[in-house]
Specification:
Length: 337
């Protein structure tokens, strides 16, 4: 298939694009290479992708409506994996307009391109952050998620609602994936594992929020990509049993689906740090701090639907995943343990 992957120079986009070209798809990778974090890391990811004859890069901003329309018209994509976004909970407090422009306007332009060019299936990234103030765990797609605690989460919830609108009005099949704390090689420098590793190796203290007591459903990037590809291959269908008197948020009479995609096994932050210390052979000096604004205490994904519908099974425990990240980090940054 000919597939568009937005955010292809990003963390999850890079891994997804590489998986698709390796299995034989033709991939057009789109990214604006913004400076939210180290551009050289994005360029290094791209350099690996560009070694693949089935991959081609287009530098374009999702918020450029005319440019996006031209790209869709010229390329005639069969399917789209929309992973491009402005990420990060904390930065959304500082730069709210950036999030609306990238995540809301950018997704609108992707939806318009899919609508007008007859794309067979749009798969897009959402986030576990949409569950916000909800503490009923494990988090289920079948429960309402309308109390976000950050603007980042609010923009992602908006994209889910927009996708449903396009599925309903234009019969565009859309599937949203709520990612749970993704980590692994080639990760973003603003992610906790990246920050922890760099500071421990540099002999600097690490900031441990919520005094280390919160839990996360840490999910290794290879497991995420496996789920993304399986979902891409299963075009969203209408739920003929959907009941408007008891509406299920995860499906619709339109070709629309929402899934959680996580490890289904929460780990306390302090244990995560212990695993990292074991991999590095060094102890961390910890600054114990309260929970940050916009953050949630715990996350835990109910993945029953994804297991049932596409056979998704996360296979990487944190002991394995963290070691793979450390091996990549030390190789990429020429660090010795």
């Amino acid at each position: 298939m000919k597939i568009l992957v937005t955010g292809a120079a990003g963390f999850i986009g890079f891994h997804t694009a590489r998986r698709l070209v390796e299995r034989g798809d033709e991939v057009v990778g789109l990214d604006n290479l913004n400076e939210y974090y180290d551009v050289t890391l994005k360029q290094a990811r791209l350099a690996l992708l560009q070694k693949e004859p089935r991959f081609r890069f287009v530098k374009l901003d999702l918020a450029d409506a005319a440019g996006m329309a031209r790209c869709f018209a010229q390329e005639k994509f069969q399917r789209v994996v929309h992973l491009g976004a402005q990420a990060g909970v904390r930065y959304s407090i500082e730069a709210p307009h950036t999030y609306v422009q990238s995540n809301v306007t950018g997704t609108l332009n992707v939806l318009e391109g899919c609508r007008h060019q007859g794309v067979e299936h749009l798969v897009y990234a959402s986030t576990s952050s949409v569950y916000g103030a909800n503490t009923n765990m494990p988090f289920s797609e079948h429960r309402i998620a309308d109390h976000p605690l950050s603007l980042y989460a609010a923009t992602k919830r908006s994209t889910e609602l927009m996708a449903h609108n396009y599925s309903s009005l234009f019969r565009l099949p859309t599937t949203g994936l709520r990612f749970f704390t993704v980590y692994g090689p080639w990760g973003r420098p603003d992610m906790a594992l990246f920050l922890f590793t760099r500071n421990i190796l540099d002999g600097q203290p690490i900031d441990v929020f919520n005094f280390g007591h919160h839990k996360r459903d840490f999910t290794f990037v290879a497991d995420i990509v496996e789920g993304v590809v399986r979902v891409l291959d299963r075009v969203a269908q209408p739920n003929l049993a959907w009941d408007s008197l008891h509406p299920d948020p995860a499906s619709s009479r339109a070709p629309f689906r929402l899934y959680n995609i996580g490890n289904n096994s929460p780990v306390e932050l302090m244990r995560y740090i212990e695993v990292l210390e074991e991999c590095l052979g060094r102890k961390a000096r910890k600054n114990l701090l309260p929970l940050q604004p916009g953050d949630v205490p715990d996350t835990f994904a109910d993945i029953d639907d994804l297991v049932k519908d596409v056979g998704y099974r996360p296979a990487t425990p944190v002991e394995v995943g963290v070691r793979r990240f450390v091996e990549w980090f030390c190789d990429y940054y020429k660090q010795r343990l």
